[in-house]
């Protein structure tokens, strides 16, 4: 720790280097978070964590985990289900690797909500609350990752509690409704942008260069002094958070553990290849490395499997938003699903093989499903008639693995056209109640909003009893 006592006049060079300080300290404050660890009467507990795979745009339930081969053609489409290693569970033919490990995951088919816009769907799903507006991605309630940040704060540890990996240009906190709302900027995840499968990929703001090492103490002293001078003038709490940010900047910059956790070159080539040398696969591998190193909630956004490299085929879409005007749905699925199948099954297999399946919970979902009935329109890129599906929050499918959950099962069911739940209807809140229970967070707790009113972590929702270990359920 650096002393905060006055050490006399600051050198002219130090003032000239305040611009560099924004890179080392204050610029990093957009990324740094505080943490706390859950304890049980002083007993040391093994920490639990979550890997959250986010599929923006919304995966089609009818082309993944809830196929309806007996439905009319305009509903079922042209793809067929295949059997898995668990009797009674079938998945899309484009996911043969899923078929081999169905005993290691559970499929939930009956979660639904009422927000059909991407913005409203993101906010509804990622916060566990009914958003004030049905569009836009600026949160009026904290994202789940921000709540995890606040509840599991652990001072003095360089590893961020919450990390989010995105494509370049997609790391703004409001792109996917990851915002902290009234919990404040110190409750945002450490954002990692770029394609980790690219040869020139680097994580910004981690690691010291030789010239930084020689001047680090002087810069940290300057940052601390500036923060103390400004703190009383700021009533929002931002300046009060700056001391935490500056310490976290120092911890992250000087920690070999943090640097190594993000360094995929430490992995054997065969492991990287098993995950897939694409954005989906390498983000999945990074997520596993981060939870092993102590991160508690790692979000990996899977949009374009090959951003900035091979490009997107003309009849395909950037993410999972498979409107007919955006893509030929089947061409798009044949392009992206092999990457998805490879990456997600590699992550699941790896978690189990490394003995992490009791402590690391994997959740994979988008903000909603797709319309049960296929529609065809002229594509804006292709200029030809092509099939697609629109937004459909009334039913969706998602996958859960690890976390000690009871896997090898399907929870819930939809009607014969995948239009709406007919068994065990649930909301995103039931999923989050399950996640919070896994992490040891009491979802009945509350935080104060901007007006000082207590706001519950979850206004409603219960853990999904079919998933919980018998000792918990």
- Profile the largest sheet: 8 strands, mixed
**DSSP strand tally:** 18
How many whole angstroms does the radius of gyration measure?
A: 23 Å
**CATH second-level architecture:** 3-Layer(aba) Sandwich
* Structural class by sheet pairing and helices: alpha/beta
What fraction of the residues are assigned to beta strands by DSSP? 15-25%
Could you say which overall geometry the principal axes of the C-alpha atoms support?
A: globular
Structural domains: how many: 1
Identify the quaternary structure here.
single chain
- Helical content (DSSP H or I, runs of 4+): 25-40%
Count the helices. How many? 13
Low-confidence stretches: 1-45, 228-242
What is the arithmetic mean of pLDDT?
Answer: 85
In whole angstroms, the N-to-C terminal distance is 45 Å
Provide the spatial order of strands within the biggest beta sheet: 6-5-7-1-8-13-4-14
The CATH C-level name is Alpha Beta
Task: Provide a concise account of the structure shown.
It is built from 13 helices and 18 strands. The protein has 473 residues and is an alpha/beta fold.
Write the layout of secondary structure elements.
Blueprint: H1 12-16, H2 18-26, E1 49-54, H3 73-76, E2 81-83, E3 90-92, H4 96-100, E4 105-111, H5 118-127, H6 144-151, E5 162-166, E6 190-193, H7 210-231, H8 238-254, H9 256-262, H10 269-275, H11 279-293, E7 297-301, H12 329-353, E8 360-365, E9 369-370, E10 375-378, E11 385-388, E12 391-392, E13 396-402, E14 409-411, E15 413-414, E16 421-423, H13 428-439, E17 446-448, E18 454-456
Parallel strand pairs: 1-7, 1-8, 4-14, 5-6, 5-7
Antiparallel strand pairs: 2-3, 4-13, 8-13, 9-12, 10-11, 15-16, 17-18
